Amino acid sequence: MARPMRKNAVLKLGGVGALAVLLLGGGLQLASAGENTGSTAAQTVNCPTVRDKLPAVPASAAAGVERELANLDEEIARQNERLAKQAANPQGGANFINNAILGPLKSKRVAVLDRIEINFNRAGAQRPDLDALATCGLNAPGVASALNSSVKAGNAATGGNNTTAAAQTVNCPTPQIPAVPAQAAANVQAELANLDKQISEANARLAQQAANPQGGANFINNAILGPLKDKRQAALDRIEIAFNRVGAQRPNLDNFAACGLNGAGAGNAGNGNAGAGNGNAGNGNAGAARTVNCPTPQIPAVPAQAAANVQAELANLDKQISEANARLAQQAANPQGGANFINNAILGPLKDKRQAALDRIEIAFNRVGAQRPDLDSFAACGLN
């Protein structure tokens, strides 16, 4: 019997919503397939979720596992984009989708799942068998793909509304650094970025702990805050050394090493070191490099399911500040361009990068069913 022809519809493939989300470097980025007229609705890949199938994740493996779960979602988003293009402009024969999309996707998932298993093994935990989660099928046209960022951990304590408990975040003091000599600026900014990376990693572990509690009453102190203090002390020592090497007085930063905890759901702790990114503003000393002055995003309580993604984007914001400050340090040492060079070559691109990261934070809320915050006003930066 001849199959009835399906009427073409005018639809925006870019509006497929959460299934077109790309996580880049730990972050979320919306990938629009554009607006197409006269195309059929796109199918999406139907992959088994992994987060909810995992046993309790050891704290030392949490960051690695989170990265790989993000990789799985990134691959789903990429293949959904390809399916959207295929719907708009069909190519190949009957087996094109199996051979060019689903087959390669399975191979990539096998590699990612292997890395998740290895993360367990390296932490001394039993290696889970995730092979059965590699193969994906297809959803009906217009049905969103299930994503790991949208499901809770398999053994997380849940409430009546099927959400996990909000995670605590680390509360680290902002190092009070004197005016940084231009020759030391790049090294100091690199270490400030390390401090922010350490905060982000610790917050990711706290998010995992909220979803999959383990250890006793002292677990967070012994396994998260203690190692974080040691890492911060090493980074602060390197900042002091950077001053000493260029003949400047070595500051004493030891009392900025220890961190505490914010209350559960405090969403801005991942950016708690943002002030440090601006902490080397000149105090009137000639030759000191200027630094960017970026507003700290005021983020509402972060749902536990979105915590890892939000922390990754807060770390991106701090990295962007560090990179911009490094460029300002180079500009102070070797001026170039005209009067508008800093605005056009540093502050303008920084605003664009911050806007993208802030958008991905908003999307992280939206994807787990929370109200999407409006963070646009935090994109533009000035100068200290």
TrEMBL record:
<keyword id="KW-0175">Coiled coil</keyword>
<feature type="coiled-coil region">
    <location>
        <begin position="62"/>
        <end position="89"/>
    </location>
</feature>
<protein>
    <submittedName>
        <fullName>Uncharacterized protein</fullName>
    </submittedName>
</protein>
<feature type="coiled-coil region">
    <location>
        <begin position="307"/>
        <end position="334"/>
    </location>
</feature>
<feature type="coiled-coil region">
    <location>
        <begin position="185"/>
        <end position="212"/>
    </location>
</feature>
